[in-house]
Amino acid sequence: MSTISVGTSLGNISAFVANNSRAMLGQMGSIASGYTVARPADGIADYFVGRKLDVQARAYAGIRRELQVASSLLDVAEGSMAEIYSDLTNMRDLIGRYFHASTTDEEKKRIATEIDGLKGLVVHTVEHTIFSKRHLLKDSSDNPLTEVRVNPHDLSHIFSISFGKSHEVDMSGFDFSSFANRDDALAAIDEQILRAASFMGHLAGTRAGLNAQYNISELAQNTSLLQKENTLGVNDVEEVMLLTKRQITQQAAVSMFAQGNVMRASVLNLLN
């Protein structure tokens, strides 16, 4: 009778050790991953909730990357237009000096050369400010420089960047030698300065909108990750305490199993 009791106890202990080992492995996997559900077998409903939140977080992360590229585009455009604005204001100062009564003919030649040189710099900057094969400082109202779909749930929600004809600095019609008086020359250059200022103002508004969209996407991404953490996240303190408890009981069970084997062997020796 005692032999049957020992065998039954050992069987229970063996089953406990096996089940406890599997539980500890699962716990260690959860602690390592940070989530209670890492595969469908851990809970099919929660697993697909986590997958959905992951997809959503990745979508917003992708949107943020695209907005960062768009921000780089604006950086390039802003830097180039700032140079143009500086060149245009320098041209305006030179025009004032050229038509001043005290300016000699020799000084006028030098000033005219400087004005033509600055005009060349402006034209060159407009023509060669390119980002991803697009001219940034030219009219793009009919064909936006870039478009970012900022809502993964509504692909029609698009943030676009473009500049109109009124923002384009165009020096093709500016010929300084054709101006007979100061007022006409200043009027021509002031028109281009106004266009440059309009471009910078439009760019500032576009950047503010872009930054707002970036912040919204960052918040949405973090919200998705936080929701996943709150739903499926592991409580490290509780899990470590439970794992420690299981390790202690595992050691005790293994010790009992070993003692049971010794006892059963002793009983068999007595019977023999």
Defining traits:
272 residues, disordered N terminus, rod-shaped, two-stranded antiparallel ribbon, 4 strands, 5 helices, mainly alpha, single chain, two-stranded antiparallel sheet, 4% strand, f41 fragment of flagellin, N-terminal domain
In short:
The protein is mostly helical and 272 residues long.
Proportion of residues in extended strands? under 5%
CATH class: Mainly Alpha
The N- and C-terminal alpha carbons lie at a distance of 16 Å
State the helicity in percent bands.
over 70%
CATH topology: the name is f41 fragment of flagellin, N-terminal domain
Structural class by SSE content: mainly alpha
Shape: rod-shaped
Q: Quick check: average pLDDT?
A: 83
Helix-strand string? HHHEEEEHH
Characterization of this structure:
The chain is mainly α. The chain has one domain (41-232): f41 fragment of flagellin, N-terminal domain (Up-down Bundle), CATH 1.20.1330.10. 73% of the residues lie in helices and 4% in strands. It has five helices and four strands. It has a two-stranded antiparallel ribbon. Strands 3-4 form a two-stranded antiparallel ribbon. A hairpin with an 8-residue loop joins β3 (146-149) and β4 (158-161). α1 (2-33) packs antiparallel against α5, α2 (44-98) packs antiparallel against α3 (105-128) and α2 runs antiparallel to α4 (182-232).
